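Hello again, I could really use a second opinion on something today. I've been staring at a protein lately and its backbone has me curious. You're getting the sequence in one-letter code plus the fold written as tokens. I'd be grateful if you could look everything over and explain what you see. No rush at all, and the record is pasted right below:
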Amino acid sequence: MIKINNFKINSDASEINISLEADENETVTKVLLWSNKTFQDYSLAIDLTSELEGTSNIEEFVVTANKAGVNSFTGIFFLEVETSNQDCEGCGLIGIAANLIKYNECLLDKVLNYSVCDITIDCRDNNDIINISVLLDAISICLQSSYYNEAIDIIDSLDKLCPTCSSCKTLTTYCAGAGLTFATLDNNLILI
């Protein structure tokens, strides 16, 4: 049996901390990482197996955004872990880490812009505010219910509603706060 003790994006989204544990007399033999853009496309998986020491049943390591080929760990990330006792490829345990701060900042920016909007001018962000809020809630439901492909579809919709924010001048960048990220701890998906 595999246990993901920790699969968590750090507060500035520059690293993912990973801690894995296999049963005694077993070792972790394979670790793959995907983003929401590459999930379960094995040809695009980032193979982290080289990070494994292979000397005990416990493995701990850090993956930088640079090693993962991303600017930062924003969105949903999936980890597949296999051990020496598994008899099938692609049937490992899946862990999830998600950083949704970009989308929460987008929502907040639209709310702030709407709140100062002149009532006589057409304020078109109102529908976006509702849509973004509902989609963020839906991602939580999808991830907690293991509807990964649906969560990916929702992230794609959020990316359309929240492109890189060039108008977010009123917001200061902040680190991950409570309720804005997901992590896998002790094989349980938790909202942090």
